[in-house]
UniProtKB/TrEMBL annotation:
Highest rank taxon of the organism: Bacteria
Cross-referenced SUPFAM superfamilies: PLP-dependent transferases
Cofactors required: pyridoxal 5'-phosphate
Domain Aminotransferase class I/classII large: 55-401
GO molecular function annotation: 5-aminolevulinate synthase activity
PROSITE patterns referenced in this protein's UniProt entry, alphabetically: AA_TRANSFER_CLASS_2
Keywords per UniProt: Acyltransferase, Heme biosynthesis, Pyridoxal phosphate, Transferase
Subunit-structure text: Homodimer.
Protein known as: 5-aminolevulinate synthase
């Protein structure tokens, strides 16, 4: 087949038109090349032809505690590569299970007070694979009650489960959730799928109250703690640990890529649930396992975070300091109790323009968040202060936002 014949396929024209539409709507996303300086976090190099290796201060990273640049974590990865090589060499069933995988799964299960844990290659895959596998079990017929603001990975897993139904309840609205649970057939298997910390608005679910409804209506609970693990609770077990309700949640899912600063996802639960997922989840079975270097780094990180509560204390001291500086300057933002600080813009093109000018004029990187990640009219900069953001960095950001937003 010639190139001309291939390019005549209608999908080529569709892509071109779709890309033009995305550009016109102000939703076209372009990558910003950033190279983190491990010794100077949160300073990165912004590599462009015009300004190679220009230092910028990054305000939108998800390495909330900076564990990815912790020397003990980095050294664990280096040692593992030297001893075991760069890759895992196979799936978990084909020469890809290392003692480090087993140790990390046990550590994560213990962190959440569960009997067992299972590693996945990412948080997205852990949600998609686990939810889809559970909701296609027992010959289907499941009804999932899904929070209106659940992550795309959860939605993908729920929608991918053939033979199951999904009922969306209003975000963090317990009354709406209960009314929908009460109206559902009593004999249908039910699941409530929700998050602890929601990544765009930074608000937090009432986990205990949701679990109480689950018990009342005999529903399984599936909790995504990806933006909370490492950051909440005495050992970093998440909001469920902080609130003392982890034992009431059936399945707790998390990531190793945010609070723990490395890579990978996982679920923890009753040992039979985990064993079923291990034997039935295609997203686990048919994927090459995480490299030993990544697992070693994650294991070191989880152990440090569990032991060292000062990291969480420092994070929230910085968050509260930054929120106060924004408030004093009159910058519009959503006040939350989480580590996520959304600065509201309200227009897609303006949001992109503010982000661009922050980078080009002030050497500050802040990710613009537009539709479909947030509703139209709710565009924002999603800022995540961490323990390494100094008062001077905060003042620079506040002054830049004042100049760009409060003309």
């Amino acid at each position: 087949m010639t190139e001309r014949t291939i390019s005549a396929h209608p999908f080529y024209a569709y892509c071109k038109t779709a890309l033009q539409d995305i550009e016109q709507q102000g939703r076209y996303r372009r990558f910003t090349p950033l190279s983190r300086r491990s010794a100077h976090y949160p300073i990165y190099d912004n590599d462009t032809p015009q300004q190679p290796e220009r230092p910028v201060v990054v305000w939108s990273a998800n390495d909330y505690l900076g564990m990815g640049i912790e020397p003990e974590v980095m050294n664990a990865a280096i040692t593992a590569i030297q001893e075991y090589g760069a890759g895992a060499g196979g799936t978990r069933n084909i020469a890809g299970t290392h003692p480090l995988h087993v140790a990390l799964e046990a550590e994560l299960a213990d962190l959440h007070g569960k009997e067992a844990g299972l590693l996945f290659v990412s948080g997205y895959v852990s949600n998609q694979a686990s939810l889809q596998t559970i909701l296609t079990s027992m010959s289907g017929g499941w009804i999932t009650f899904s929070d209106q603001q659940n992550h795309a990975s959860m939605i993908a897993g729920i929608k991918g489960a053939k033979g199951s139904d999904c009922i969306i309840f209003k975000h963090n609205d317990l009354n709406d959730l209960e009314s929908k649970l009460a109206a559902a057939p009593k004999d249908s298997p039910k699941m409530i799928a929700f998050e602890s910390v929601y990544s765009m608005d930074g608000d937090i679910a009432d986990i205990g109250a949701i679990c109480a409804l689950a018990r009342k209506y005999n529903a399984l609970t599936y909790l995504d703690e990806v933006h909370a693990v490492g950051l909440y609770g005495k050992q970093g077990g998440g909001v469920s640990e902080r609130d003392g309700v982890a034992d009431q949640v059936d399945i707790i899912e998390g990531t190793l890529a945010k609070g723990f600063g490395v890579h990978g996802g996982y679920v923890t639960a009753n040992k039979d649930i985990i064993e079923y997922l291990r034997l039935a989840a295609s997203g686990f079975i048919f994927t090459t396992s995480l490299p030993p270097s990544v697992v070693a780094a994650a294991l070191a990180s989880v152990r440090l975070v569990r032991e060292q509560n000062w990291r969480r204390e420092k994070l929230f001291e910085r968050v509260h300091t930054f929120q106060q500086k924004l408030k004093d300057a009159g910058i519009p933002f959503i006040q939350t109790e989480s580590q996520i600080v959304p600065v509201m813009i309200g227009d897609a093109n303006l949001c992109k323009e503010v982000s661009r000018r922050l980078l080009e004029e002030y050497a500050i990187y802040a990710t613009p968040i537009n539709y479909p990640t947030v509703p139209k009219g709710k565009e924002r900069l999603r800022l995540t202060p961490n323990p390494f953001h100094t008062d001077d960095m905060m003042d620079d950001m506040v002054n830049a936002l004042r100049a760009l937003l409060l003309k």
